[in-house]
Design a protein that fits this description.
The complex is a heterodimer. Chain A is built from 12 helices and 11 strands. Chain A is α/β, with parallel strands linked by helices. The chains are: A alpha/beta, B mainly beta.
Chain lengths: ~400, ~130
């Protein structure tokens, strides 16, 4: 780990604030051979170096969803693996699936540092689904048995994948508001264009509208390019207490607000997805307004989720998302609301929620390199999920 | 006959639902105090918090609230394309079922289509599929 001494820097911050300080990411790939715990430690090393912290400065860990064997590779590393592997001295840790989606782990960490439970919390999300699928002898897929829990209401009807659940909301948008495939395509095209400027992005080849329109449909109206794909990677965000933000050498980014709200905790009993009430609630939790936002990093595990976030957060009215993104100019790197500037999950890899906060911090610090947006950005929104789970973070550089 | 499906594990809470088709009727839990339907099944009414909830039959008709045409084979034996739809259940306001619209061309399904339940038994489970009403 970093051997450099912590750089002290005076900051004038309220003690109840929480900041994202160091950020890190492992190699992003498919069918990686490197052990998932080591990928996680790669990302931790980078985040510690970024912040000028040492591993002994870390006293908390937060993850989503914690270690699980099923689905294979979905979450192969838990807090307990890290704590013991690195002999960490931890005062608080948590990891679980029952939260508001992936970035719920960051909200939990922010609450922990505000409450004084910890000073510097490592938040991580490690995915290994591509590697696990390629090495079934190491990561056996369980034989399908009887269904428990919510999937009993979907899988008997061959609605196997979240794409089938999201596609039904997308179809409602198509039929109610007239969303066109040429419009929705801009989420994927914009992500791919930005990924070309991101050295770590998983897929960097150019993608044309013709390729998108001709690609095979997965679940109408969503096609292959509307869906992210299994990836192997770890992403780390260090969340630090306000009084500890002076410990770090990087520019701390304040977690100005966080939000979650859902109409009904269900994939098929809600009229619309949780991105709508969650987006509205974010603005109730802050004095910032949508017009203050310089860039948005919005979950795109499926492209349609991003569209619902744009509408739910009030960047356009409900039903007008298709027109808002039409042509792609408004959401491009040099547009009025640069979106998913690292490529999103569709092109940068299925980092599963954490990539959006990682990129928001990168942009707010002006460290985006070839993909850095102009204009000294100070405020960003990062989200994960979309429905029924949804987390929105408002991030600010003071 | 539909292809063999992954089936729910029956327990005291869901057994009535997945067995209901044995006599051809679709049932959901209903509150004995305020008549609210409770789905998925839980032992309390979300509206009045009464614990007097019991299965009650509904007409078995409904409306396609939204749908998708799935074209991806999620396992090698899966026959595609097929329609996955969310059905608004007549007589049970606020209750929806995810199911399949069978016995019709997938391209022939639209939001607002009237449908009726048709059960198919697989092992000890009666799966509620839906057909269009002409």
């Amino acid at each position: 780990m970093s051997s450099s001494p912590s750089l002290k820097r005076s900051t004038d911050v309220a003690s109840k604030d929480a900041f994202i300080t160091g950020i890190g990411q492992s190699q992003v790939g498919v069918r990686l051979a490197r052990h998932p715990l080591l990928l996680t430690i790669d990302a931790i090393r980078e985040a510690l170096d970024d912040a000028g912290l040492m591993i002994d400065d870390i006293d908390g860990i937060s993850t989503y969803p914690g270690k699980t064997a099923v689905p294979a590779g979905f979450s192969p590393v838990g807090c307990e693996d890290l704590i013991d592997a690195l002999r960490m001295k931890i005062h608080w840790f948590a990891g679980g699936m029952e939260t508001t989606s992936q970035l719920g782990a960051v909200v939990a960490a922010a609450n922990a540092v505000r409450a004084g439970q910890a000073r510097h919390v490592i938040c991580f999300r490690t995915v290994y689904e591509a590697a696990a699928a390629a090495r079934p002898e190491e990561f056996p897929q369980p034989r399908p048995g009887r269904l428990d829990g919510y999937v009993q209401w979907t899988m008997p009807f061959n609605a196997y994948s979240a794409v089938n659940w999201v596609a039904q909301y997308a179809m409602r948008h198509v039929k109610t508001y007239g969303l066109k495939r040429e419009q929705l395509a801009q989420i994927a095209l914009n992500g791919r264009a930005n990924a070309g400027l991101n050295p770590r992005a998983l897929v960097r080849d150019p993608l044309s509208l013709d390729q998108y329109m001709e690609s095979r449909m997965i679940s109408d109206p969503l096609c292959l390019f509307d869906c992210d794909r299994f990836s192997d990677a770890s992403t780390v965000l260090i969340v630090s207490a306000g009084e500890a933000a002076g410990d770090v050498k990087c520019t701390p980014i304040r977690i100005a607000a966080a939000a979650f709200e859902s109409e009904r905790h269900s994939w098929d009993q809600s009229e619309w997805m949780a991105a709508y009430p969650t987006g509205a609630r974010l603005w109730q939790n802050t004095d910032y307004k949508p017009k203050d936002v310089d860039t948005v990093q919005l979950y795109d595990g499926f492209s349609f989720l991003t569209l619902t976030w744009l509408e739910g957060l009030g960047f356009c009215a409900k039903g007008e998302g298709g027109e808002f993104i039409e042509g792609g100019h408004r959401i491009a790197l040099d547009g009025e609301l640069p979106l998913n500037t690292f490529g999103g999950q569709l092109s940068a890899g299925r980092l599963h929620g954490f990539g959006f906060a990682h990129e928001a911090v990168t942009q707010l610090r002006g460290l985006g390199g070839a993909r850095q947006i102009a204009g000294d950005p100070k405020v960003a929104v990062a989200t994960s999920g979309g429905g029924p789970l949804a987390t929105a973070l408002l991030l600010a550089r003071d | 006959m539909a292809d063999p499906r992954l089936l729910p594990r029956l327990d005291p809470e869901n057994r009535f639902f997945w067995s209901s088709g044995a006599d051809g009727l679709l049932r959901f839990l209903q509150c004995g105090e305020c008549a609210t339907y409770v789905h998925p099944p839980r032992p309390i009414c979300p509206h009045c918090r009464s614990e007097l909830v019991a299965p009650a039959s509904v007409p078995g008709t409904g409306v396609v609230d939204t749908f998708t045409i799935n074209r991806q084979k999620w396992h090698p034996g899966m026959e595609v394309p097929f329609v996955i739809a969310r059905i608004a259940i007549d007589g049970a306001p606020g209750v929806f079922l995810t199911s399949n619209i069978i016995q019709t061309d997938p391209e022939n399904v639209a939001i607002g289509d009237r449908v009726k339940v048709v059960f198919e038994q697989q092992e000890d489970v009666f799966l509620p599929f839906f057909e269009k009403i002409d």
